Amino acid sequence: MTSRTPKPVVASGGVSSLDDIAALRELVPLGVEGAIVGRALYAGAFTLAEALDVAAG
Asked: Are 7 and 1 in contact (CB under 8 A)?
């Protein structure tokens, strides 16, 4: 997706673990700017603080 648009891309769906966030972090140089993690947060898979920590690297 990022190779087909100059716009930032936000990942939505399928983010269910901190490992998923870490994998998305590796795509930032390619244009992935963010991720929607609502369901995982509500389900208690991780906290917002944990997600932000992993996203920051």
From this structure: no
